[in-house]
Amino acid sequence: MIDQAIHIMDLARWFVGEPIASIQASIANRNHPEIETEDTAEGLITYRNGVTSVFFATNNFTYNAPVVIETQCEHGTALLEWDKATITYKNGRELTVVNGRRYQLEELDDQVEGFWFIQDSAGLLVVQPGVVKEGETHMVEVEIALRFPYIPIGPGKFLVNTTRCTVTQVAGGAR
Amino acid sequence: MNQGPVLGTTLFSLTNEWQQRLLTLEQMVEQVAARGLGPAVEVVGFQSFREFPDISDAFAEHFRELLARHGLVPGCLGANLDLGRRRGRPMTTDESVAYLERQIITAKKLGFPVMRIQLFAGPAVLEKVAASAEKAEVYLGCELHAPLTVDHPEVVHTREFYERLGSPFLGFIPDFSCTMTAVPAGFWASLRREGAPEGLIEAANAIWHSDKSIPEKFGALAAASARHGASPTVAGQLNRVMTMFGRMDVERWTEILPYARHIHGKFYHVDEAGNEPSIPYPAILALLKRVGYTGTISAEWEGQAFTEEPVGLREVQAWHAMCSRLLS
């Protein structure tokens, strides 16, 4: 128990950025027939800045469930599941998914050290609470301008190819 | 012993197969070997190597062993000088040098004797990377691709710089796109699919064949597009007729070949009679034989610019048959 969950709790503490003030928790071997120590722990942690978090950890579950940290913040929710992070803003701005990470469109400008491999897919997530509702069918038009950084066509200017496509998509559930 | 050019294949020719995940890197190499499309293998780093521009020791060993197992040899690594990586400003000279040096290290690790770079690197960058290239014994070749010609001011400037520096590790990589005799039929077919009217295609073809200057031709193309009411997509695509296909005389390659150790055997289609209708391979290969060129030539099928059909292997195979016939 301590061997495994400790790293996730450490990461959660790092997200909060403050030392722990108090803990109410319980640990026990509730169901594991083979190990001699506890198999499950759950509790409430209060940090010095007033942030509270709940945790649950068990190594006696029906499948290899993902490590999940969910953070509820002023402007949105951050969800970490295995190595996949999802950030959903309350104002419903669009998020782009590249290399297993999500970016706001305007964040992509700075990603000059990252490379998007030709065989990898990128997803475009359109989040518009109240406008796009689950189960509705919407037409989504996407325009991608690809700048060729190795084909200069003038001082400081580079070749740009623009592609447009339109897809009809049923909206998924809110996340 | 045959002292002619050494043929090979760039995996770039298999872009459609690769992009559509029909073949893995290992399967592409296997196919190149099985179909006799070697021995020299060229790879565009960013396209084929997930770790590029840096490469782990483990991957380098895997790649070298992969080629060796199939009786193939590394030919050329396609490197990139991504000058326009940032939206706001081009890379500085120091950034460019550092970016290329990373790729020289990678070329060395993978065993490539030649690395392709872009001509616009220019003497300031080339002078600084020359030492790294010499140390790694990786020959850097600036690609001469349409619309460049051997008498383009930048090419002349670079040649003069090469002569001044005298490094045996700097040169050019000629690409046959500079010396074409017709616009590939596949290009016109792609424009028709975009809705280009026949009259516009005829006008553009006539402009391409004319002896006007490049800026005059761009002007004439824009006027033709406007006259025929071409969509923005068609008008944009039409400009490629000037940037992708050059009309330089084949004999002009003679001046550049002393600086070449590797060549891009650009082609768009080899027809049923075994000929490339838009590029004069008989004249080009006769010239290479005449001047005693013994470097490598990659089959570089660029038909994927107009079609998503996964026909790269078939086209490359036809190219090899054509070149072997013309060189024998």
Biggest sheet overview of chain A: 3 strands, antiparallel
Stretches with pLDDT under 50, minimum 5 residues of chain B: none
Evaluate the radius of gyration of chain A: 22 Å
Strand order of the largest sheet of chain B: 6-5-4-3-2-1-8-7
Return the string of H and E elements of chain B: EHHEHHEHEHEHEHHHHHHEHEH
What shape does the CA trace of chain A take? elongated
Distance between the termini of chain B: 13 Å
Query: Stretches of chain A where pLDDT falls below 50 for ≥5 residues?
Result: none
The overall pLDDT average of chain A reads 82
Strand order in space, largest sheet of chain A:
1-2-3
Which chains share the greatest interface? A-B, 15 and 20 residues
Summarize the model shown.
Chain A is mainly β and 175 residues long.
Would you kindly provide a written description of the structure presented here, covering whatever features stand out?
The complex is a heterodimer of chains A (175) and B (328). Chain A is mainly beta. Chain A contains 1 helix and 11 strands; from the N terminus they run αβββββββββββ. In chain A, the strands form 4 sheets. A 3-stranded antiparallel sheet of chain A has the order 1-2-3, with helices on one face. Chain A is elongated. Chain B is α/β, with parallel strands linked by helices. In chain B, helix 5 runs parallel beside helix 6 and helix 9 runs antiparallel to helix 10. Chain B is globular. The interface between A and B is medium-sized, with 15 and 20 residues.
